[in-house]
Amino acid sequence: MALLFTGACGYIGSHTARAFLEKTTENIIIVDDLSTGFLEHIKALERYYPNRVAFIQANLNETHKLDAFLNKQQLKDPIEAVLHFGAKISVEESMRLPLEYYTNNTLNTLELVKLCLKHAIKRFIFSSTAVVYGESGSSLSEESPLNPINPYGASKMMSERILLDISKVADFNCVILRYFNVAGACMQNDYSTPYTLGQRTLNATHLIKIACECAVGKRKKMGIFGTNYPTRDGTCIRDYIHVDDLANAHLASYHTLLEKNKSEIYNIGYNQGHSVKEVIEKVKEISNKDFLVEILDKRQGDPASLIANNSKILQNTPFKPLYNNLDTIIKSALDWEEHLLKFQ
Q: 16-50: per-residue pLDDT in tens?
């Protein structure tokens, strides 16, 4: 059997593909339009797992192209499940370009589900986000109310609803994974080679990546967006999870889906919150580098606090976090940024 990964030339998808290639026997087909993904990730996967990765450059709105591919694929090596990573993910950008988010995230998910139903692909793992919860919350559970305050979160919430509604009436089961804040780089990277996995995102908006770029000299300064939130130091609090743990959460969820054939929603975080100021100070401490930090206005659409209650996935799947320590996450992110300087 094969697995279809969308958007796996990107950060999270490529790490998850590596986890599946390492720990299962399934071959992986990656569909990505390379709008934000990188061929370097495909090359890294192919180097370490030869003859097990196929790549199709396509947008999910190219349904005729994907339909023709699936007509052939299902006859020779049927697809066991789809893991859907492809999406736009910037809260700030979604406030300016909402139509792009509803088109790329929600409508493309709908088209992908239609293809799954047509070609009898019965299992689907969906990359969602804690942003669906909206305003601040500590120890948010999967039953917490959904009230997204930006188009990014709304586009993901709508996609979740599509999947859950279809799973009630069709031979189709889904796992929805609500990511909290993902950071770090592959702990198995061989930094003596260019064949590595990490966050290559250009003009990134992710806090840990930005702070690490400042520490290695890629940026001259960074900003804190708001210091008067109702939190312990006035800055936003987030639950940061290492990307390898997130990848393994997908693997655990997949095995549970195979076993139980039941749709589920899981939060993916550590139930630990760190403020923006705390993260920046930790990056400075670990890197032994100082850099300029400016205080800026709040960004529209940023919740004050998002912290996961992760008890459901810990109790109901084989998932066991390995890197739930902020120092470990930041150290791996710093190693990655230094590696990029060497090979770019």
A: 999 999 999 999 999 999 999 999 999 999 999 99
Specify the DSSP class assigned to residue 180. -
Instruction: List domains and CATH numbers for the chain.
Output: 2-183+240-268 (3.40.50.720)
Asked if 219 and 213 touch (Cβ cutoff 8 Å), the reply is yes
What is d(CA 344, CA 339) in angstroms, rounded to the nearest whole number?
9
Extended beta strands in the chain, E state: 2-6, 27-32, 53-57, 79-84, 123-129, 137-140, 173-179, 181-183, 221-225, 237-238, 240-242, 264-268, 274-275, 292-296, 305-308
Question: What confidence category does residue 139 fall into, taking pLDDT thresholds of 50, 70 and 90?
Answer: confident
Let me know: does 323 contact 329? Beta carbons within 8 Å.
yes
Farthest CA pair distance, the chain: 58
User: Which residues make Cβ contacts (< 8 Å) with residue 304, sequence separation at least 6?
Assistant: 135, 136, 229, 230, 231, 236, 237
Burial status of residue 325 (CB atoms within 10 A of its CB: 0-12, 13-18, 19 or more) = middle
- Residues involved in catalysis: 152
Residue whose C-alpha is closest to residue 150's, from 78, 213, 102, 184: 102
How much of the chain is in helix, strand and coil states, percent to nearest 5?
45, 20, 35
